[in-house]
Amino acid sequence: MTPSTDTICAIATNPGGAIGIVRVSGAQAIDITQSAFSKPLLKAKGNTVHYGEIVDETGETIDDVLISIFRAPHSYTGEDSAEISCHGSALIMQSITELLIRKGCRQARPGEFTQRAFLNGKMDLAQAEAVADLIASTNQASRRMALSQLRGGISNQLSELHERLQRLTALLELELDFSDHEDLEFADRTELLQLSETIRDALRQMADSFKTGRAIKQGVGVAIVGKTNVGKSTLLNRLVGEERAIVSDTHGTTRDTIEETITLHGITFRFIDTAGIRATADEVEQMGIERTYKKIDEATIVVWLLDALPSPSEIMEMQERCKDKSLIIVKNKIDKEEGETGNPRAPFGQDTGTSSTNGKETFVGSTDNPAPSPLLRISAKRGDGIDQLLQAIFAAADVPEVRENDVVVTNTRHYEALTRASESIHRVITGLQAALSGDLLAEDLRLCIDQLGDITGGTISTDETLGNIFSHFCIGK
Fold it and tell me: What tens digit of pLDDT does each residue of 228-268 get?
């Protein structure tokens, strides 16, 4: 795919701010911008800024602006480019864009500026996708990961793996070229096996980082579940610091899921308030309960909120449903216990469904699931124990700290390519162990190289594939 010869323009900033930017890129970018500008630009050097007015065909001034000039190839897209900095009014930015289109520009498609940067060799595809991730970053960890990828973190690691794969391929092909000389041995199969295993381990490590990357990029899902009227909505409101969910003593008030996010130690957590679990004949409420079970399946962490001790069968059922997740069991409404008994720990501490170790209560697990789940005691209404609950949730997420230069996979497309590459190199290892011929091994090696090339764009050539990737970008980037 080659870059379009059209000159494109687009608004690059959200309207309503003090400053807005309209971007122009393409062979005629400076000529078209000049036709709407009150000062000379055609001989302007690259990386210079010029003050003047944008004037329409009637001679009316649209706005006083600053125009930054970039000459190819020293621009974001690798083409001649101009960036018009104006006041951030939606009317002004739209008027400038419409004027440029009338003078010969085309409205840019989503991500087209970055797509041109990729096609012109200014960045590889992994770096281009990191631009979108950086724009969408919502916490420090996701920002660090996007910056690392934009600066070539993943690309550099893939380049090292590519060199090892090329060496492996060269040794095998040398063996094939001289296969009719029985007295010559050009490839030490033991060395090839060790090199293949090193590549496999590196691919697995990158693929395994996707779990962390996805949690940081998309946020850690935390489902708040329990029976009706145990305080789930009150807890959500307490956690996010606003009246987000309706709170009522009436059972079945929450009939759909409500989702809000907060950031803990640089990691985004998505809290989902779910419909109360109970037997009901209400069709709409039943639909809400079905969505609750779906959210449990999707969540990484489940906060099971209680206001009374559940039966052993209920404990077993919940632990079975959450066997692949972190389950945190929380006793709410301890403010009511305190008023009734004078001892907020007595109602649970004396029950046979819990045990106590060093002052910390845990539910005893079932026979099939002997691992106990932690029990925390809170008052969502009053705020008691909320800090301890947040600490438990952050610990349960088990998201390692990500430094700026760490290589963490965040993109599903990258993960799938790494998984396919791992399968290919695994077949090479199996083939080496089985003493298969070099031509069979070489085919899997070429597949592995191509699959890694998909990540950086080295083997992607179809317009449809690139269009799908860049269509998720915002217009103007």
Answer: 788 888 899 898 886 554 444 444 444 346 788 888 888 88
Task: Calculate the CA dihedral of residues 372, 377, 383, 388 and round it to 10 degrees.
Answer: -40
CATH code of 134-209+407-457, in short, is 1.20.120.430
Query: What's the pLDDT at 464?
Result: 61
Class of the 217-397 domain?
A: alpha beta
CATH fold, domain 8-123, is Gyrase A; domain 2 (3.30.1360)
DSSP 407: -
Residue 359 has pLDDT above 60, yes or no: no
CA distance 332 to 309: 11
Which single residue is written with the structure tokens 């060790």?
194
> How sure is the predictor about 210, in pLDDT bands with cuts at 50, 70 and 90?
very high
Cα–Cα distance for residue pair 147/167, rounded to 1 Å = 30
Q: What is the mean pLDDT of residues 329-343?
A: 71
pTM for the whole structure? 0.73
Of the pLDDT bands very low, low, confident and very high (cuts 50, 70, 90), residue 447 is very high
Evaluate whether 271 touches 280 at the Cβ level (below 8 Å): no
DSSP-derived letter for residue 333 is -
What does the pLDDT average to over 171-184?
61
The token pair at 433 is 């162990």
Contact assessment for residue 236 and residue 382, using Cβ atoms and an 8 Å cutoff: no
Contacts for 327 with CB less than 8 Å, ≥ 6 apart: 301, 302, 304, 318, 319, 373
Q: Smallest Cα–Cα separation from 214: which of 454, 397, 15?
A: 397
* Tokens of residue 68, six digits: 């930054």
Segments making up each domain of the chain, as ranges? 8-123, 134-209+407-457, 217-397
